[in-house]
Amino acid sequence: MSEEKKNEEKRVEEKTVVKVKSSKFSTILIILVMVVSFVAGLFVGKSMFTVKIEEGMVTEQLRKCSELTTGISTMSGDIKIEEGDIPFITQKKYTMRYVAEVRAGVELKNVNPVIDGRTIKVVLPHSTILDISFPEKGLDFYNSNGALFNWRTQEDAKTGMAAARKKVEKEIKNSSVLKTADAQVVSVVKKLLAFAEKEGYKTEITFSESE
């Protein structure tokens, strides 16, 4: 084979190699462009369909539950009542046994959430006693000799329940009822704001320092 023919075949082979390499590069470039376009489309599509959460929306959702009860306890006990100084004339001695129903929770009417970027910050008051009630069927009155009797006047009942209320309030504050209610408040508020978390927002709940 002549030297000229060999050189010609070599040039043909080089052109073929360059053409093959160029074809592979074009294919890779096309694939990269397709991938980038697909990813960009996902981000654009997500931004188009993501709802922007406003503070007013969060506030409205929370204030629908202006008073949030997260703890209910039943407590029972007895209270001794002594009134008056003159035996058998002005003096009264009796014992009232009671069953008290206690509701604990927070009031949300003054809560003002703040949105910082994609974080919803909610500062809540600590749980307090919202109500103490004394069902009539749970009240029993006993005289100084231990005999059961129907209360003589409505004032007797009011006096006994006022004293019982103070006793129950003290017992509740010294128990774990309010702390348990606080934990439940956090759980309930997160559920109320679940609509925002579905849109990619994070909920940050804290309690104010004053109790």
Mean pLDDT: 75
How would you classify the helix and strand content by structural class?
alpha+beta
State the helicity in percent bands: 40-55%
Strand content: 25-35%
Shape: rod-shaped
Distance between the termini: 102 Å
User: Would you count the extended β strands for me?
Assistant: 8
Number of helices: 5
**Helix and strand element order:** HHEEEEEEEHHHE
Overview of the molecule:
The structure is a single chain. This protein has 211 residues and is α+β, with helices and mostly antiparallel strands. 45% of the residues lie in helices and 28% in strands. It contains five helices and eight strands. The strands form two sheets. Strands 1, 2, 5, 6 and 7 form a five-stranded antiparallel sheet that branches. The longest helix is centred in the first third of the chain and has 47 residues. It is rod-shaped. About 9% of the residues have low confidence.
